[in-house]
UniProtKB/TrEMBL annotation, chain A:
One of its GO terms (molecular function) is thiamine pyrophosphate binding. One of its GO terms (biological process) is organic acid metabolic process. Residues 61-208 form the Thiamine pyrophosphate enzyme TPP-binding domain. This is 2-ketoglutarate ferredoxin oxidoreductase subunit beta. InterPro entries: 2-oxoacid:Fd_oxidoreductase, OFOB, THDP-binding, TPP_enzyme_TPP-bd. SUPFAM superfamilies: Thiamin diphosphate-binding fold (THDP-binding).
UniProtKB/TrEMBL annotation, chain B:
Residues 15-198 form the Pyruvate/ketoisovalerate oxidoreductase catalytic domain. The keyword Oxidoreductase applies. It comes from Halobellus ruber. This is 2-oxoglutarate synthase subunit KorA. Heterotetramer of the KorA, KorB, KorC and KorD subunits. Its EC number is 1.2.7.3. GO terms for molecular function: 2-oxoglutarate synthase activity. Residues 234-480 form the Pyruvate flavodoxin/ferredoxin oxidoreductase pyrimidine binding domain. Residues 509-582 form the Pyruvate:ferredoxin oxidoreductase core domain. GO terms for biological process: organic acid metabolic process; response to oxidative stress; sulfur compound biosynthetic process. PANTHER family: 2-OXOGLUTARATE OXIDOREDUCTASE SUBUNIT KORA (PTHR32154:SF20), PYRUVATE-FLAVODOXIN OXIDOREDUCTASE-RELATED (PTHR32154). SUPFAM superfamilies: Pyruvate-ferredoxin oxidoreductase, PFOR, domain III, Thiamin diphosphate-binding fold (THDP-binding), TK C-terminal domain-like.
Length: 312, 632
């Protein structure tokens, strides 16, 4: 029997199984969009029948970083912007785990921007949810990388002179193989997208629009949205890189002018995941590395026998 | 020129094959029963620029590069740039010869490639040769190489000339070249070798200098190993199967060796976007149940400060390597220093704690790396191996039996699923992974995917199951538990006799020398020289720095009148650590510091001891005495 018997369990599950028994009172403000992410993640995990113990949810710092405090699974609340490198390595060490990383727009697109680009480039098989509320929340309302140009805050009293980050376009350029945008105000779409993202064999990036009722009442999350995949007005081939790119560009340009478009923007089912690439070139074992440490029959190579001849 | 030892320096341009040639030379001599020790000097550029490697050869065990050298093979820099008149970096073409004359002992031998080097370009060359009694061989190595193969084979020609002059049996070198070269390269190299060898025996026989290589034999099989090799092998034998890193000199060597070897044993190596990611990956892999490591040199390790603290707070085992080079900032990338001691001890916020080892040589590097992993995994905290460019790159012969040890895949205090079923959980069903009322203060952990083991690891202060908490009572309990692990580790490292570090010289000596890490062997040779000259000195080489061996060091200092603390940095960091940890003895300590980018030679420590202790023994110790180093 596997050492990690929680992995691969196929049981029907209820979303309440992911609610901690000793439910900590979330520190999110009433009306916060983060509740929507939590709800969607629980729904997705239940639909997929995932055991709480086969999931590892890695978060960064900020309001989004509390996600795994309120979601029952293995969790690693890391440091600002660093959820991805920790999540990546856990997946490499044990590919059987379902690994979800999460962070905020400051965490994910600002301080962790480098890790975002490289994790997407490598196409690690994991899901990355970025809580995008266009503001720094937990540090009390500073301008974030996704705040619109001209956004005023205590640290940008004259309004931001910077164009906001284009997370979807960046993700596509970096190499993510599943890219979607969803919103806390549409929990059913959000849940479906998380299900697809977890099932997708590669790096899945979800830009998750979450409203901040305390610090950013003007944000786009409050305006009506349209699901591009359900609307005849926005027909495009989401497996086609250039059509997806055009769609993203349009979305990220007109975003603040009324309508918010959500849905799946890009899906590449052909590209092998990083694990598959590493295994193909012989740089990663076929069996989960972590299993080996529990296998009493495994014969560990000694340097004396394996490598010392070259020094003689 | 004495015949009991040869210190052979091969000099040329970076990229001219100096390192590989010297490595083969050293290995051939080791195979013939001698003890060897190499020292590298190279510039921070890809091709061209003055580089040399010394190979010290002796019938007896050697602990350092020695003082100066006595045989120069100057090959010429094939990448030299013909600098403009007055260029600040000087005439690079002649550097392989001109730059090396200061350290050449009287009566020594100079072989230079007259095909590439012209002594007319070196001021006062003939006068200096006469003054020091050097024996000069101007041989057109380049032409010999061209005639039978390619110009690059002038290395082989130079080695052949060395053999002919120093009386080294050519077969040892030839058989090694046979082992390492493909046949179509080997054949022309042999022709070059024979031709160059004959030039010396036929044309220079008459005025042969009194130079020969000693003979020796080993009781047991030896291997030629660098500190970087030893660290990598210690990690592999301790079951490390995951490394993440970013290249930085000189840490890159360990990273490279691991990356090349890991696939062979089913391990994973990841070169990632930066050092923050590198350390974070090691933490992530360790969290998921694999023995993992990362590392860097000073600048990259600065970036690891943040994940280092996370490993402490989440009690995730991890081993980090810090290969020091001259700083601050990017400093001198290819030059050695011991200036990152405080950086490694104190970096990261809060009451942080980690175990730090500073191996002195390859053998210690292997053993201490294994110990670093064992302690990291048993006690769930970061261990750091602190070494430097010097011992990372030095090759020396080590008995193969040192590596004849069983592998250790034990993850330390990890529970099985059966044990987890009986382990304490909180009311939410979470495993109490951070229990504070546990024996030894190490709370056992679980691995993601294990049934019954789910918990939250977090860099915030947390309750036993990982819930974030600012409860004052829990806070104090958790801090106390984490900190007290260091006391347990101190007791374990101290052992029964409390002598965990390197003691050398007469136990009842009047004076002491203390050093840490890579300077230990050099200091030991200095102690030998001083005692032979009638002084009364002993050495304590500290290579386990945190938790600090308080009782052992206090006992050493108490037993002598004065102590000279030898280290390669300008701010006396090791002496400062000693005074901080001991809280007394400041007046008994004085410092000998070197920070010009090159390690101490034994003679410099001898000279420093005489200046500081013998000639002026009553000066208060808190005044740092610096003996400037001459030349290199």
């Amino acid at each position: 029997m596997s050492t990690f018997s929680a992995i691969g369990e196929d049981v029907e599950r209820d979303r309440n199984e992911y609610t901690p028994g000793l439910e900590p009172q979330p520190t999110w403000c009433p009306g916060c969009g983060d509740f929507g992410v939590l709800k969607a993640l629980k729904g997705a995990a239940a639909e997929l029948g995932l055991s709480p113990e086969e999931m590892l949810v890695c978060t960064g710092i900020g309001c989004s970083g509390k996600l795994n405090s309120y979601f029952e699974s293995y969790g690693f609340h890391t440091i600002h912007g660093r959820s991805l490198p920790i999540a990546r390595a856990a997946k490499l060490a044990n590919p059987g785990l379902t690994v979800v990383a999460a962070g905020g727009d400051g965490d994910g697109y600002g301080i962790g921007g480098n890790h975002f680009a490289h994790s997407a480039r490598e196409n690690h098989d994991m899901t990355y949810i970025v809580f995008n509320n266009e503001i720094f929340g937990l540090t009390k309302g500073q301008t974030s990388p996704t705040s619109p140009k001209g956004h005023k805050s205590k640290t940008q009293p004259h309004g931001s002179a910077k164009d906001p980050i284009r997370p979807l376009s960046q993700s596509l350029t970096a190499g993510a193989s599943y890219i979607a945008r969803t919103a806390a105000v549409n929990p059913n779409q959000a849940k479906d997208i998380i299900v697809e993202a977890i099932e997708h064999d590669g790096f899945s990036h979800i830009d998750f629009l979450t409203q901040c009722p305390t610090w950013n009442k003007d944000a786009k999350q409050y305006v009506p949205y349209i699901d591009i995949n359900d609307s005849d007005d926005y027909e495009f081939d989401r497996t086609d890189r250039s059509e997806a790119s055009e769609m993203m560009y349009e979305t990220e340009t007109v975003l603040h002018e009324g309508t918010v478009l959500t849905g799946r923007y890009y899906v590449d089912e052909e590209r092998p995941s990083y694990t598959q690439e590493k295994q193909a070139i012989g740089e990663m074992p076929d069996e989960p590395l972590a299993e080996r440490y529990f296998d009493d029959d495994y014969e560990w190579e000694r340097v004396y026998d394996t490598f010392l001849d070259r020094h003689k | 020129m004495t015949t009991d030892e040869l210190i052979w320096r091969i000099a040329g341009g970076s990229g001219d094959g100096i390192a590989s040639t010297s490595q083969n030379f050293a290995k051939a001599l080791m195979r013939s029963g001698l003890h060897v020790f190499t020292h590298r000097h190279y510039p921070s550029r890809i091709r061209g620029g003055h580089t040399y490697t010394e190979v010290r050869v002796s019938a007896d065990p050697i602990r350092s590069r020695g003082d100066g050298y006595n045989f120069l093979l100057a090959l010429g820099d094939s990448f030299a740039r013909n600098p403009k008149e007055g260029a600040y970096y000087g005439n690079e073409e002649v550097k392989p010869l001109a730059e090396n004359l200061d350290d050449l002992r009287d009566g020594g031998v100079i072989v230079y490639d007259s095909g590439l080097l012209d002594t007319d370009d070196i001021p006062d060359f003939d006068e200096r040769v006469e003054e020091h009694g050097w024996h000069v061989y101007d041989i057109d190595l380049r032409s010999i190489a061209r005639e039978h193969g390619r110009e690059v084979m002038r290395n082989t020609a130079g080695v052949a000339v060395t053999c002919a002059i120093a009386g080294i049996e050519p077969q040892a070198i030839k058989s090694l070249m046979d082992d390492t070269m493909p046949e179509k390269v080997f054949e022309p190299n042999m022709s070059v070798f024979d031709d160059a060898y004959d030039v010396v025996t036929e044309e220079y026989d008459a005025d042969a200098p009194d130079v020969s290589v000693p003979t020796g034999s080993h009781d047991e099989e030896q291997v030629l190993i660098s500190g970087s090799d030893a660290i990598a092998y210690g990690a592999l034998d301790e079951g490390c199967r995951f490394i993440a890193g970013y290249p930085m000199t000189p840490w890159t060597e360990v990273f490279t060796i691991m990356s090349q070897n890991l696939p062979e044993v089913g391990g994973i190596s990841e070169q990632v976007e930066d050092e923050i990611a590198a350390a974070a990956l090691a933490i992530g892999a360790s969290h998921a149940g694999v023995k993992a490591m990362s590392g860097s040199s000073g600048g990259g390790f600065a970036l690891m400060s943040e994940p280092l603290g996370l490993a402490e707070m989440t009690e995730t085992p991890v081993v980090l390597i810090e290969a020091m080079r001259a700083g601050p900032s990017t400093g001198m990338p290819t030059k050695t220093e011991q200036g990152d001691l405080e950086h490694v001890l104190y970096t990261s916020q809060g009451d942080s704690h980690r175990v730090v080892f500073a191996p002195a040589d390859a053998e210690e590097a292997y053993r201490q790396t294994r110990r670093a992993f064992r302690i990291a995994y048993e006690y769930q905290l970061p261990s750091i191996i602190l070494y430097d460019q010097k011992n990372g790159g030095e090759l020396q012969n080590v008995p193969a039996s040192v590596f004849d040890e069983e592998p250790n895949p034990d993850l330390g205090s990890v529970l099985t699923e059966a044990e987890l079923a009986d382990a304490p959980h909180d009311a939410s069903g979470k495993f109490n992974r951070f229990q504070y009322d546990v024996e030894g203060d190490v709370s056992p952990r679980s691995i993601p995917g294990q049934e019954g083991g789910r918990y939250l690891a977090t860099g915030n202060e947390h309750m036993p199951a990982g819930h974030i908490s600012e409860d004052p009572e829990n806070r104090v309990n958790q801090v106390n538990r984490r900190m007290s692990k260091m006391d347990t580790i101190r007791k374990e490292l101290d052992g029964d006799d409390g002598e965990r570090n390197f003691h050398y010289g007469p136990a009842d000596a009047d004076y002491g020398i203390m050093t840490f890490g890579s300077q230990q062997g050099t200091a030991a040779e200095a102690v030998d020289t001083l005692n032979e000259a009638g002084e009364s000195v002993k050495l304590l080489g500290v290579s386990e720095l945190a938790p600090y061996p308080v009782d052992e060091v206090a006992g050493f200092i108490e037993s002598v009148e004065e102590v000279l603390v030898v280290e390669m940095n300008a701010s006396a960091q090791f002496r400062g650590l000693t005074q901080k940890e001991l809280g007394r003895f400041g007046e008994k300590l004085s410092s000998l510091l070197k920070y010009n980018g090159n390690p101490f030679e034994p003679g410099e420590i001898v000279e420093g001891f005489r200046t500081s202790i013998v000639e002026d023994g009553t000066l208060p110790g808190h005044e740092t005495k610096f003996v400037p180093a001459a030349g290199d």
